[in-house]
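Researcher: Dear colleague, please comment on this protein.
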Amino acid sequence: MRAGRGRHFCCCLEMREQTCRPLQDLTEFPPNLNGRAEMLARVRLRRARASARVSARHAGSRMRLIAFNKPHGVLCQFTDADDRATLADHSAVPRVYPAGRLDRDSEGLLLLTDDGALQARIADPRHELEKVYLVQVEREPDDVALRALRAGIVLDGRRTRRARARRVAEPGWLWPRSPPVRYRKNVPTTWLELRIREGRNRQVRRMTAAVGHPTLRLVRVAIGPWRLEGLAPGEWREEPAVVPS
């Protein structure tokens, strides 16, 4: 360190020791400061005041998290050039945005938030937040098909992450879909519960189709700690905006 810089460093330390005063008093400087040290001190003062203004703006504010039961046929966006149904037709909460996607022909739990960090934490597959789906498929998948779903399906040259898949009874609480699922007299259907930790484009539908059982109806019932339970189609409620661990 050159001697001049050493004197400047000591001078700044001396200033710091001598100026343990309220923020507004920092406009007064010891007479022995050179011009550069005074300029640096004024920059710090401006930054501190700017930070204080930001803190004051956000005082009392909180991030919001909305759980929404997306009906079939609703787009996961607020506008559409073709005048199709969107989130704007159902949510009166301003300035919230979807944390992840749900296909237009899928139903169930969609989370919306006004906080970018929480949105990324929920939607980014790197965080491996579990998503639970009830899936109605054509015919009855055998154990071989279920093992294939659990092991992962190759989509676009990449294998999906390991999943949890099992046959379940038809949910008695589930609302009728509008329009109804296509009915084929000679083709039975089965309900599956599928748990995945990623979210590729139309992933669940493509996975079941790959094992020979096309999806007829898809309902998301959980995302991490958040549940669909208690929400009718088109209804929403506010949830604690807690970032999952």
